[in-house]
Amino acid sequence: MSNLIVNLGVLKKSVFKGILAFLTLLSVYFLILTLVSGWNFTWEQFTEFWYYILLLALGFGIQFSLYNYLKGIVKQRASTGRVLGVSGTTSTAAMVSCCAHYLTNILPILGVTGIITFIGQYQVKFFWIGLFFNLLGILYIGNRIVKFSGQL
After folding, report:
1. Is 73 domain-assigned?
2. Is residue 3 part of a domain?
């Protein structure tokens, strides 16, 4: 692990993008719920499930940051001709793991709005499933970054 090199320029940009992704996901949550069910309902749901909602959005932001960092260091190495054993598969797999499971994260929102009553009955379970997939995505992309960064 001591051989890992961190590119601060790419890291700063990635963290900024992750913060924007976090705020965007929260904004979308509030916007959709408010448009469908009104502000009072939205606020009640947020105050009841704030820890799930913030953790899901934070997980999304972290994954978005990690993915952008991985993409940035892969692109940087490719431009200098120092890519060792890395294919486009790494970035593609990281992107799929980062984003594919967000259908699970959207399901609680759909359940909250009353669109799908079945999902509403299992809302907390869907939150936990979303958090679990957040963790898996973070671990996977983090692992890709560590492996790629160690190949200098």
Report:
1. yes
2. no
